[in-house]
Specification:
By secondary structure, this protein is α/β, with parallel strands linked by helices. 37% of the residues lie in helices and 17% in strands. The chain has one domain (3-293): Zn peptidases (Aminopeptidase, 3-Layer(aba) Sandwich). It is globular, with a radius of gyration of 20 Å. The protein starts with a helix and ends with a helix.
């Protein structure tokens, strides 16, 4: 099946499913396809909510895909809802892959529940902002994998992270997809290793959905760009080295980081895993595609952004008293 044929099968979703709806749909899928789909509770969240894994197929290789590693990013959960249905219902589609699929629609269950206030009306940026929740780094599933690097020693994985650690250690996935998305901007990718034969395809895919590529600077200054909008995945060691170089001799990078490493970094330590991350936005603004020279310098833009951040922090701090 060609990719364009596959995307034609995706329902025209009008809203994001809640965690409860996702769980119910997973349980119902297993009931409808008892010989093809297995669903089980792999662990519990910090608040005691179940974390369900869908296991589909019987291939020799393992694929691990998980949605909502950041709880404000449910696009991937919706993709997994479709993919699980497609894998279960279409034998020809499923059998063309020599994979057993391990799918977790929502890994940060508690955090995702805190975002549900905007799930049924994501067209409203005001509602999105008013119901937005994203935890600090040391409370994020994606960034609480254990790491020992120079002065950085993090060994406090969240219960949700431990679920992923166990699956990675047991299944040793050949392919892992941590499903992220962004709020604004364009589309960009992370891969654990360069795969030149995929880069051209990655560059063309967003155009099928009238989405631009993100052609600005990367999220972090130390990232390795493989192609425009395609970057090499990184772990906390790379961030540590960058901070060590730029903070100065009297400051310990570990005191700034205060978190662990990534799922890809952990997987690379226990398996030969190829990891993919794709970032795509909820909201579009034509200025994202404007490559003309701005009327301010980058330094001025950075100063303006910093001042706005300070003002926003002061406002939120006052409101939260």
């Amino acid at each position: 099946m060609k990719f364009t044929e596959l995307i034609d099968c995706v329902p025209d979703y009008k809203e994001f499913f809640t965690v409860e709806e996702m769980d119910q749909r997973s349980l119902e899928l297993a009931k409808r396809y008892p010989g093809k789909v297995k669903v089980y509770e792999a662990g519990k969240s910090r608040n005691g909510n179940p974390i369900y894994v869908l296991e589909i197929g019987s291939g020799k290789k393992n694929a691990l895909l998980f949605g909502c590693p950041h709880p404000n990013e449910p696009i991937g959960a919706m993709m997994l809802d479709f993919l699980s249905e497609k894998l279960a219902s279409d034998d020809v589609f499923r059998d063309q892959f020599d994979y057993t699929w391990h799918l977790i629609k929502v890994i940060d269950v508690d955090g995702t529940k805190l975002n549900e206030g905007w799930f049924k009306d994501s067209s409203s940026i005001r509602k999105y902002a008013g119901n937005f929740y994203r935890p600090p780094g040391h409370e994020q599933v994606e960034w609480t994998f254990p790491v020992d690097y120079k002065t950085l020693h993090f060994h406090s994985p969240l219960p949700e992270t431990e679920v992923l650690m166990k699956l990675i250690e047991e299944k040793k996935p050949e392919f892992m997809y941590s499903l992220h998305n962004s709020g604004f901007g364009g589309v960009y990718y992370y891969v654990s290793d360069a795969v030149p034969e995929l880069h051209e395809t990655f560059s063309k895919l967003p155009g099928l959905f009238s989405l631009p590529l993100s052609l600005g600077e990367p999220e972090a200054p130390f990232l390795e760009q493989l192609e425009p909008a395609i970057f090499k995945l990184f772990g906390m060691a790379q961030e540590y080295d960058y901070l060590e170089k730029n903070l100065g001799p009297d400051k310990d990078p570990a005191n700034v980081i205060k978190a662990g490493t990534s799922s890809d970094d952990f997987a690379s330590s226990v398996a030969d895993t190829f990891s993919l991350v794709c970032e795509m936005p909820y909201y579009y603004d034509a200025r994202v595609e404007d490559m003309s020279e701005a009327d301010i310098t980058r330094k001025e833009a950075q100063r303006f952004n910093y001042q706005r951040s300070v003002e926003n922090f002061e406002f939120v701090s006052e409101v939260m008293k």
